[in-house]
Every structure is written in C-alpha cells, then in structure tokens.
C-alpha cells in the first residue's frame, strides 16, 4: 500500500494533471504545426495524436472532479483513460517508427515524451488514491458494522438489505 496520505495523493494528482494539461496543449500545438505539411499516414498520425490529447484533456477535467470530491466513478474512468492514453501513445509511436523514421522524429517531440511519461506517473498516483479511498471506505463500513453490533441480529445496517 502507498505510504502517502489521501491529501498528499490528491495534491500530487492535481499538480501532475495540470502539468499534463500544459504538455497536452504544447503537443497539440506542435501537431497542428506539422499536420499541414504532410499527407497520408503521417497526417493521420498527427490527427490521432491530437485526438488522444484532446480526449485526455476532457478526462482530466472529469477526473479532477473525482479527485477533489472523492468520487469513485470519475476516478475509475480517469484511471482507464490514463491507461488507454499511455498504451495508445506508445502504440502510435511504434507504428510510426516502423513506417517512417523521419515522421517519428516529428511526431515524438519532447512534449510527446513528457506527456506520455507524466501520464504514467499520474496513473500511478490515481491508482494509489483510488485504492486508498476504497480501503478507507471499507474500514468505515466495518467500523459502522462493529459499532451497530446487536447480540441477536448482527449488523443493523445490513438488516434493511435482507428484509
């Protein structure tokens, strides 16, 4: 389990998300500069990269809500989006590298690499935060169950679900 508390995990996640947004913006700008110069699969690679960046930008805004408000569904979606973004960016770079090395150099700018690496780091912090929130919720439900223990019926808050 992660040794950081929930507050530190939230702060790290938000800070890294902001940095990813800056890197996303710079990568989109770099792709827009290059998309007009090429045709065919190179243009498609730049467009796919821009779509992935735009999708992650939306997911960061939704995931930040989950981080701040301790909502599990936005955090799950944020986790999935970060994982999908990371895998798709790696696959896109490998495919373009196999086709043409010159396009690979243009596509994988320093912003591209920084964005991909930071998405992995953010994925680690978000997954640790999600696990910490899940563990804390389980501990709270066990504490409620133990405090409501009745000698004949067990936990009172579980009786309403069985009746």
From TrEMBL:
Transmembrane spans: 7-29, 41-65, 77-99, 111-131
Keywords annotated in UniProt: Membrane, Transmembrane, Transmembrane helix
Protein's UniProt name: Uncharacterized protein, isoform A
Classification lineage: Eukaryota, Metazoa, Ecdysozoa, Arthropoda, Hexapoda
């Amino acid at each position: 389990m992660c040794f950081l508390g929930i507050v530190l995990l939230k702060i790290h996640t938000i800070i890294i998300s902001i940095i990813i947004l800056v890197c996303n913006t710079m990568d989109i700008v770099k792709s827009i500069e290059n998309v007009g110069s090429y045709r065919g699969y190179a243009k498609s690679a730049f467009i796919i990269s821009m779509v992935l960046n735009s999708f992650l930008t939306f997911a960061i805004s939704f995931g930040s809500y989950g981080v701040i408000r301790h909502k599990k569904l936005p955090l799950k979606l944020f986790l999935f989006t970060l994982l999908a973004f990371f895998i798709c960016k790696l696959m896109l770079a490998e495919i373009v590298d196999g086709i043409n090395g010159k396009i690979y150099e243009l596509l994988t700018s320093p912003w591209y690499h920084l964005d991909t690496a930071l998405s992995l780091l953010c994925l680690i912090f978000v997954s640790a935060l999600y696990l910490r929130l899940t563990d804390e919720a389980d501990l709270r439900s066990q504490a409620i169950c133990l405090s409501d223990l009745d000698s004949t019926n067990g936990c009172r808050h579980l009786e309403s679900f069985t009746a």
